[in-house]
Amino acid sequence: MPKASTRSLTSSAKPADEKITINLGCVDLGQIDLLVQEGFYANRTDLIRTAVRNQLAAHGEAVKQVVARKTLTLGIHYFTKADLLSLKAARDKLNIRVLGLAVIDPDVTPELALATIESITVLGSLQASPAVRAALRTRIH
């Protein structure tokens, strides 16, 4: 089955960082604040980002193996209205499997999305209009 063409987002269209919430014990938080106060890190976020990146690097090979096994596409993938119209004309459907960011153009209608997207699996973030998300809710895993 042909895949829809994808393009990387340029730096001018860089996606926003995702916000997460974590719970930390008082002692851990106090140690983080001490390291920030002593100048090891600019702020709490800097320390947490560094810790996360270090853990991701430590497990990088395992991530690569899982990506290959689950046939995920790594990175940022942008699905345009033209991509989906081409699929529709070919009477083909897309199975989106992304580790990173999948973006469905805001000008894609719910009807076009339903006609061309069979399933969506995103480990990371999916950006789509609320109407497209609602239309595809049973196809998003």
TrEMBL record:
<dbReference type="Pfam" id="PF17723">
    <property type="entry name" value="RHH_8"/>
</dbReference>
<dbReference type="InterPro" id="IPR010985">
    <property type="entry name" value="Ribbon_hlx_hlx"/>
</dbReference>
<protein>
    <submittedName>
        <fullName>CopG family transcriptional regulator</fullName>
    </submittedName>
</protein>
<dbReference type="GO" id="GO:0006355">
    <property type="term" value="P:regulation of DNA-templated transcription"/>
</dbReference>
<dbReference type="InterPro" id="IPR041088">
    <property type="entry name" value="RHH_8"/>
</dbReference>
